[in-house]
Amino acid sequence: MTEQLDHEVTVEELSALMKRTAGVHVDPATLRQQADDGFDTFGLDSLGLLGIVAELEKRYGLGLPEQAERCKTPADFLALVNGALKTGV
Predict the structure, then answer these.
(1) Would you say 67 and 49 are in contact if contact means Cβ atoms under 8 Å apart?
(2) Residue 5: left if φ>0, alpha if ψ -120 to 50, beta else—which one?
(3) 87 CB-contact burial (10 Å; exposed 0-12 / middle 13-18 / buried 19+)
(4) Where is the Carrier domain (predicted)?
């Protein structure tokens, strides 16, 4: 049985992860306003996104869906990751 987690990754957390794992600094307010822009707009490439996914998997002890590594925008990424955290999948 999968365990549901009562947590949601916020824009602020994503911004901090982008800086810590990929060296990309984006102000959380800017990230929130431009959440539908591509990650490449912020200078984050697929390898950087992979690092964020790995950090979240380690943090929550949960394998995230494979699609997380292929999300194109912060909005899509947060929706997918938070959905997975809520359902435990």
Answers:
(1) no
(2) beta
(3) exposed
(4) 8-89
74 vs 58: CA distance, rounded Å:
20
Alpha-carbon distance of 9 to 24, in angstroms, equals 18
Question: Residue written as tokens 């431009």?
Answer: 34
**What secondary structure letter does DSSP report for 6?**
-
Q: Hey, what are 80's tokens?
A: 């997918």
- Whole-prediction pTM value? 0.90
* Whether 9 contacts 86, CB under 8 Å: no
Closest-CA residue to 79 (of 6, 9, 27, 15): 9
Please, what is the average pLDDT of the chain? 92
